[in-house]
Design brief:
With 196 residues, the chain is an alpha+beta fold. The protein has helices at residues 2-28, 30-33, 51-64, 83-89, 118-133, 154-161; strands at residues 42-43, 71-81, 95-100, 107-108, 145-152, 166-171, 182-183. The protein is built from six helices and seven strands. Strand 3 and strand 4 form a beta hairpin.
Length: 196
Protein backbone atom coordinates (compact mmCIF):
# COMPACT_ATOMS: atom_id res chain seq x y z
CA UNK A 1 0.00 0.00 0.00
CA UNK A 2 2.91 2.31 0.81
CA UNK A 3 4.42 1.81 -2.66
CA UNK A 4 1.05 2.48 -4.30
CA UNK A 5 0.67 5.88 -2.54
CA UNK A 6 4.25 6.77 -3.42
CA UNK A 7 3.55 5.91 -7.09
CA UNK A 8 0.44 8.10 -7.12
CA UNK A 9 2.38 11.01 -5.63
CA UNK A 10 5.13 10.67 -8.24
CA UNK A 11 2.51 10.49 -11.02
CA UNK A 12 0.77 13.61 -9.64
CA UNK A 13 4.06 15.54 -9.42
CA UNK A 14 5.00 14.51 -12.98
CA UNK A 15 1.57 15.52 -14.27
CA UNK A 16 1.86 18.91 -12.53
CA UNK A 17 5.35 19.41 -13.94
CA UNK A 18 4.07 18.53 -17.41
CA UNK A 19 1.26 21.06 -17.06
CA UNK A 20 3.71 23.78 -15.98
CA UNK A 21 5.93 23.03 -18.99
CA UNK A 22 2.95 23.17 -21.39
CA UNK A 23 1.76 26.50 -19.95
CA UNK A 24 5.29 27.92 -20.16
CA UNK A 25 5.62 26.85 -23.79
CA UNK A 26 2.22 28.29 -24.68
CA UNK A 27 3.12 31.61 -23.05
CA UNK A 28 6.04 31.90 -25.49
CA UNK A 29 3.87 31.25 -28.53
CA UNK A 30 3.26 34.19 -30.87
CA UNK A 31 -0.44 33.36 -30.75
CA UNK A 32 -0.66 34.15 -27.04
CA UNK A 33 2.36 36.31 -26.21
CA UNK A 34 1.58 39.21 -28.54
CA UNK A 35 -1.43 40.63 -30.36
CA UNK A 36 -2.34 38.95 -33.61
CA UNK A 37 -1.12 40.87 -36.63
CA UNK A 38 -3.59 42.71 -38.81
CA UNK A 39 -4.09 40.67 -41.96
CA UNK A 40 -3.05 43.52 -44.23
CA UNK A 41 -6.40 45.19 -44.86
CA UNK A 42 -6.35 48.85 -43.82
CA UNK A 43 -8.81 51.68 -44.08
CA UNK A 44 -7.76 55.32 -44.08
CA UNK A 45 -5.05 57.64 -45.28
CA UNK A 46 -1.49 56.36 -45.56
CA UNK A 47 1.15 58.37 -43.69
CA UNK A 48 2.68 60.18 -46.67
CA UNK A 49 -0.45 60.10 -48.86
CA UNK A 50 -1.96 63.43 -49.91
CA UNK A 51 -5.62 64.00 -49.23
CA UNK A 52 -6.34 64.15 -52.97
CA UNK A 53 -4.56 60.84 -53.57
CA UNK A 54 -6.49 59.27 -50.68
CA UNK A 55 -9.82 60.59 -52.00
CA UNK A 56 -9.07 59.10 -55.43
CA UNK A 57 -8.07 55.75 -53.90
CA UNK A 58 -11.24 55.68 -51.75
CA UNK A 59 -13.42 56.48 -54.77
CA UNK A 60 -11.76 53.66 -56.74
CA UNK A 61 -12.43 51.20 -53.92
CA UNK A 62 -16.11 52.16 -53.91
CA UNK A 63 -16.41 51.80 -57.68
CA UNK A 64 -14.67 48.40 -57.61
CA UNK A 65 -16.79 46.97 -54.76
CA UNK A 66 -18.79 43.91 -55.91
CA UNK A 67 -22.48 44.74 -56.31
CA UNK A 68 -24.87 43.37 -53.71
CA UNK A 69 -22.18 42.16 -51.29
CA UNK A 70 -21.92 43.74 -47.84
CA UNK A 71 -18.50 45.18 -47.06
CA UNK A 72 -16.88 47.32 -44.38
CA UNK A 73 -16.17 50.93 -45.30
CA UNK A 74 -14.64 54.00 -43.69
CA UNK A 75 -16.87 57.03 -44.10
CA UNK A 76 -14.97 60.28 -43.50
CA UNK A 77 -16.94 63.48 -42.97
CA UNK A 78 -16.01 66.79 -44.62
CA UNK A 79 -16.06 68.40 -41.17
CA UNK A 80 -16.53 67.03 -37.65
CA UNK A 81 -20.21 66.29 -36.94
CA UNK A 82 -22.09 66.18 -33.65
CA UNK A 83 -23.82 62.93 -32.68
CA UNK A 84 -27.20 63.94 -34.12
CA UNK A 85 -25.82 65.13 -37.47
CA UNK A 86 -23.63 62.03 -37.85
CA UNK A 87 -26.64 59.81 -37.10
CA UNK A 88 -28.64 61.58 -39.82
CA UNK A 89 -25.88 60.98 -42.38
CA UNK A 90 -25.80 57.22 -41.69
CA UNK A 91 -29.54 56.79 -41.12
CA UNK A 92 -29.96 54.41 -44.08
CA UNK A 93 -26.85 52.30 -43.41
CA UNK A 94 -27.41 48.73 -42.27
CA UNK A 95 -24.70 48.66 -39.59
CA UNK A 96 -22.43 51.25 -37.97
CA UNK A 97 -19.54 49.33 -36.39
CA UNK A 98 -17.29 52.07 -35.04
CA UNK A 99 -16.80 55.80 -34.75
CA UNK A 100 -13.66 57.83 -35.38
CA UNK A 101 -12.76 60.92 -33.36
CA UNK A 102 -9.67 62.85 -34.49
CA UNK A 103 -6.68 60.51 -34.62
CA UNK A 104 -7.88 58.19 -31.81
CA UNK A 105 -8.32 54.51 -32.68
CA UNK A 106 -11.71 53.61 -34.10
CA UNK A 107 -14.10 52.89 -31.21
CA UNK A 108 -16.39 49.87 -31.67
CA UNK A 109 -20.10 50.57 -31.20
CA UNK A 110 -23.17 48.45 -30.52
CA UNK A 111 -26.35 48.89 -32.50
CA UNK A 112 -29.03 50.93 -30.70
CA UNK A 113 -31.31 49.00 -28.36
CA UNK A 114 -35.08 49.48 -28.28
CA UNK A 115 -35.95 53.11 -27.66
CA UNK A 116 -32.49 54.36 -28.67
CA UNK A 117 -31.17 56.02 -31.80
CA UNK A 118 -27.72 55.97 -33.33
CA UNK A 119 -27.33 59.52 -32.06
CA UNK A 120 -27.80 58.14 -28.52
CA UNK A 121 -25.13 55.49 -29.15
CA UNK A 122 -22.69 58.09 -30.53
CA UNK A 123 -23.32 60.46 -27.63
CA UNK A 124 -22.92 57.70 -25.04
CA UNK A 125 -19.50 56.84 -26.50
CA UNK A 126 -18.47 60.52 -26.53
CA UNK A 127 -19.53 60.83 -22.87
CA UNK A 128 -17.61 57.65 -21.99
CA UNK A 129 -14.41 58.95 -23.62
CA UNK A 130 -14.85 62.28 -21.84
CA UNK A 131 -15.23 60.47 -18.49
CA UNK A 132 -12.09 58.41 -19.18
CA UNK A 133 -10.13 61.62 -19.81
CA UNK A 134 -11.36 63.26 -16.60
CA UNK A 135 -8.49 64.19 -14.35
CA UNK A 136 -5.91 64.39 -17.14
CA UNK A 137 -5.35 68.13 -16.94
CA UNK A 138 -7.92 70.05 -18.93
CA UNK A 139 -8.20 67.39 -21.65
CA UNK A 140 -11.73 66.88 -22.93
CA UNK A 141 -13.06 64.52 -25.54
CA UNK A 142 -14.06 66.14 -28.80
CA UNK A 143 -17.83 66.37 -28.92
CA UNK A 144 -17.87 65.47 -32.60
CA UNK A 145 -17.15 62.55 -34.92
CA UNK A 146 -14.74 62.71 -37.85
CA UNK A 147 -16.04 59.51 -39.40
CA UNK A 148 -17.54 56.08 -38.94
CA UNK A 149 -16.86 52.50 -40.00
CA UNK A 150 -19.98 50.96 -41.52
CA UNK A 151 -21.05 47.73 -43.23
CA UNK A 152 -23.50 47.63 -46.13
CA UNK A 153 -23.78 47.01 -49.88
CA UNK A 154 -21.94 49.18 -52.41
CA UNK A 155 -25.30 50.50 -53.58
CA UNK A 156 -26.05 51.95 -50.12
CA UNK A 157 -22.44 53.13 -49.75
CA UNK A 158 -22.64 55.00 -53.08
CA UNK A 159 -25.74 56.85 -51.87
CA UNK A 160 -23.84 57.65 -48.68
CA UNK A 161 -20.87 58.99 -50.69
CA UNK A 162 -23.27 61.42 -52.42
CA UNK A 163 -24.25 63.00 -49.08
CA UNK A 164 -23.01 66.60 -48.87
CA UNK A 165 -21.49 65.92 -45.42
CA UNK A 166 -19.36 62.99 -46.64
CA UNK A 167 -15.80 63.55 -47.87
CA UNK A 168 -15.02 59.95 -48.85
CA UNK A 169 -16.14 56.35 -48.57
CA UNK A 170 -13.35 53.75 -48.71
CA UNK A 171 -14.49 50.13 -49.07
CA UNK A 172 -12.70 46.92 -48.09
CA UNK A 173 -13.12 43.62 -49.95
CA UNK A 174 -16.30 41.75 -48.86
CA UNK A 175 -14.24 39.00 -47.20
CA UNK A 176 -12.62 41.41 -44.71
CA UNK A 177 -13.46 40.36 -41.15
CA UNK A 178 -14.29 42.69 -38.27
CA UNK A 179 -11.31 43.01 -35.95
CA UNK A 180 -8.83 41.84 -38.61
CA UNK A 181 -8.25 45.20 -40.32
CA UNK A 182 -6.84 48.52 -39.20
CA UNK A 183 -8.31 52.02 -39.38
CA UNK A 184 -6.10 55.07 -39.88
CA UNK A 185 -7.30 58.67 -39.53
CA UNK A 186 -8.12 60.81 -42.56
CA UNK A 187 -7.04 64.45 -42.34
CA UNK A 188 -9.59 66.09 -44.58
CA UNK A 189 -7.98 69.50 -43.98
CA UNK A 190 -5.02 68.35 -46.07
CA UNK A 191 -2.42 68.30 -43.29
CA UNK A 192 0.05 65.46 -44.03
CA UNK A 193 -0.03 62.74 -41.40
CA UNK A 194 3.78 62.56 -41.31
CA UNK A 195 4.06 66.23 -40.43
CA UNK A 196 5.89 67.07 -43.67
Amino acid sequence: MDGFDRGRRIAAVLALLGLVVVVALLSLSDRTAKPMAINGDMLGQETSESIDAYAARAATSLTAAPAGRDAYALVSFKRPLDAGSAAEVVADVGRVNAMVMLSAPAMPLPEPIAGETRADVFQRQITLVDAQLAGIGNVRAPQELNGVVVRDTPEVLQQLAANQEVFSVEVLPPDAAWGAFGVRPVNVDGTPLDGA
